[in-house]
């Protein structure tokens, strides 16, 4: 049994997208969180098993998995037939792990340093941001997906970050074309419909 603890318009939204791409059955527990985008919006939800009260948190039977990249790896390993990951021993495994980790370790901090203005005050932050953007543009320019012809969970991790951070990225058509390709995926649309509780009912 798989259960995802989720709050709308947060990093757990990308896990709903992944679940839709995988076509697997995962129960979604909509829960409260204390902060969104740095703003206090409530308190941690006592039902949420994440040690810091954050989302995403995934429970698989008795096992708790947190951190989006770990959740993405866990699910793609659990459902290898969906072809959204890279099994141990496959040629793509190294690149796949690299992009998942790079999103959390390099891309997100770079985007935050751009959003907070840190890159204007700190030469190292500026250099890291520029390097991240250069690497990403180069990787996406070949396309259609991050790792070439095959769409993977790394596209979900990177694509969701680029989506919410688009205004803070360089004005480069490579980003727009990539985001456009991602937005036409049926699973992406279905994930948006499931993001908030009752959102489908509200829309109809
Ligand atoms: N590195 C974590 C970050 C998780 C995270 O910060 N999630 C935010 C939502 S985007 C959250 O739950 N915030 C609530 C809080 O800080 O209390 C991941 O990628 O899973």
Plain-language structure description:
With 204 residues, the protein is an alpha+beta fold. It has 2 domains: 2-83, Glutaredoxin (3-Layer(aba) Sandwich), CATH 3.40.30; 93-187, Glutathione S-transferase Yfyf (Class Pi), Chain A, domain 2 (Up-down Bundle), CATH 1.20.1050. Helix content is 52%, strand content 10%. It is built from 9 helices and 6 strands. The chain has helices at residues 13-22, 68-78, 93-115, 118-121, 123-142, 153-165, 173-183, 186-194, 199-203; strands at residues 2-6, 27-30, 35-36, 39-40, 57-60, 63-66. A 4-stranded mixed β-sheet has the order 2-1-5-6, with helices on one face. The protein has a two-stranded antiparallel sheet with strand order 3-4. Helix 2 (68-78) packs antiparallel against helix 3 (93-115). The mean pLDDT is 95. The structure holds glutathione. Residues 10-11, 33-35, 53-56, 67-68, 104 line the site of glutathione. Glutathione is lined by residues 10-11, 33-35, 53-56, 67-68, 104.
| Whole-number total of structural domains | 2
Percent of residues in β-strands: 5-15%
β-strand number: 6
What structural category arises from helix and sheet content?
alpha+beta
Average pLDDT over all residues: 95
The molecules bound to the chains, other than polymers, are: glutathione
The CATH architecture classification of the largest domain is Up-down Bundle
**Considering DSSP H and I runs of 4 or more, what fraction of the residues is helical?**
40-55%
Tell me about the largest β-sheet.
4 strands, mixed
Which strand order spans the largest sheet, edge to edge or round the barrel? Answer: 2-1-5-6
- Low-pLDDT residue spans: none
The CATH first-level class of the largest domain comes to Mainly Alpha
Oligomer: single chain
Q: What is the CATH topology classification name of the largest domain? A: Glutathione S-transferase Yfyf (Class Pi), Chain A, domain 2
- Compute the CA-based radius of gyration: 17 Å
Number of separate helices: 9
Question: Element order, helices and strands?
Answer: EHEEEEEHHHHHHHH
Tell me the span between the first and last alpha carbons. Answer: 30 Å
Tell me the overall shape.
Answer: globular
């Amino acid at each position: 049994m798989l259960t995802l603890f989720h709050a709308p318009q947060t990093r757990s939204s990308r896990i709903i997208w992944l679940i839709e791409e995988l076509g697997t059955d995962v129960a979604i527990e909509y829960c409260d969180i204390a902060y969104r985008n740095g703003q206090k919006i409530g308190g941690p939800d006592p039902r949420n098993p994440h040690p810091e009260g954050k989302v995403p948190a995934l429970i698989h039977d008795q096992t708790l998995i947190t951190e989006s990249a770990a959740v993405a790896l866990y699910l793609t390993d659990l459902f290898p037939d969906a072809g959204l990951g890279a099994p141990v021993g496959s040629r793509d495994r190294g690149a796949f792990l690299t992009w998942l980790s790079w999103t959390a370790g390099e891309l997100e901090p770079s985007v935050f340093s751009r959003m907070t203005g840190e890159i204007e005050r700190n030469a190292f932050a500026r250099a890291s941001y520029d390097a991240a953007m250069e690497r990403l543009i180069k990787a996406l320019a070949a396309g259609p997906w991050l790792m070439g012809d095959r769409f993977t969970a790394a596209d979900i991790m990177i694509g969701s970050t680029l989506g919410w951070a688009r205004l803070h990225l360089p004005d480069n058509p490579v980003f727009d074309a990539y985001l456009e390709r991602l937005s036409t995926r049926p699973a992406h649309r279905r994930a948006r419909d499931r993001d908030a509780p009752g959102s489908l009912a509200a829309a109809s």
